[in-house]
Write a structure and sequence with these properties.
Length: 269
């Protein structure tokens, strides 16, 4: 029973182009990564997994786009959470999030590691059209959970940092043909397809195959575009590509879908 209690637990509360929130807990800390929905919606999602925002002590922000920071100010003011982001993100999102008490604002430098008792959070930069985008790998004892959702590509540096995590939340933003044939104006299509845009289903699969290892048990496919992807297509694409490269999907590890409106079950790593 003691071992079960001391495991890191995770739930992707919401993931998609409309809003992103991920919940992680250890015995000593309960944290959120991003708050891209209203405070009320995030509380509802937390309640759906048997948790409450009142217990969350820290919030880590990846970048200033609204689908990642919409609820940051509200949660900080209402629940007294400490908020962590790098200087570029703080500067870029300050008007969006409103006033946050100074003693709750922390600068988390890109490329550094923050230790909170039994939880270590490692930050790393990604290639996205934001001020100073960074994502996180969370470590608890021998378990780790890496989050990479808004990036045009996965650099060798990032791949090295997140190698052989036990769990991943990984971007599969769009199906390339759906995007090319869709209604988006060409400049927006170019932005999404570019090096500072988003990973396609194929890009996500290829990047995952370069980083997963023997420890990897759970993979969440995230940040799907409502207009340029469907859950089943993303899942099938990643599944088929991995099986074609002799990865033992549903044996060595499991692929999970995420949703912009519904939280994934809280699981222990």
């Amino acid at each position: 029973m003691t071992q079960q209690k001391d495991q890191m637990k995770i739930s992707v509360l919401a993931s998609g182009s409309s809003g992103n929130v991920t919940y992680v807990e250890t015995e000593k800390h309960k944290v959120l990564i991003d708050a891209g929905l209203s405070g009320k919606k995030i509380e509802t999602l937390m309640n759906s997994i048997g948790r409450t925002l009142k217990d969350v002590d820290s919030l880590f922000v990846t970048h200033e786009h609204s689908d990642h920071c919409q609820g940051v100010g509200v949660l900080a003011r209402r629940y007294g959470m400490n908020v962590y982001a790098n200087e570029g993100t703080w500067d870029a999102m300050s008007k969006k999030v409103g006033k946050i008490p100074l003693d709750q604002k922390y600068v988390f430098k890109c490329g550094s590691v923050l230790s909170l008792d039994d939880l270590d959070i490692e930050s790393f930069g990604v290639s996205h059209d934001a001020s100073e985008p960074q994502f996180y790998e969370l470590h608890h004892h021998d378990s780790s959970f890496a989050i990479v959702t808004d990036t045009g590509y996965v650099s060798p540096m990032v791949a090295g940092i997140i190698q052989d995590a036990e769990a991943y939340l990984f971007e599969c933003n769009h199906d390339t043909e759906m995007l090319r044939m869709g209604a988006y104006p060409w400049p927006l299509k170019q932005r999404i397809l570019g090096d500072t845009g988003h990973l396609s289903n194929e890009d996500g699969a290829n990047a995952l195959m370069s980083v997963i290892g023997n420890k990897t048990k759970q993979i969440y496919l995230g940040h799907l575009s409502r207009e340029n992807n469907v859950k089943e297509l993303a899942h099938l694409t990643v599944d088929h590509m991995m099986r074609d490269h002799d990865f033992a999907v549903d044996h060595d590890f499991y692929l999970h879908d995420t949703d912009p409106e519904k939280a994934t079950p809280l699981i222990a790593l």
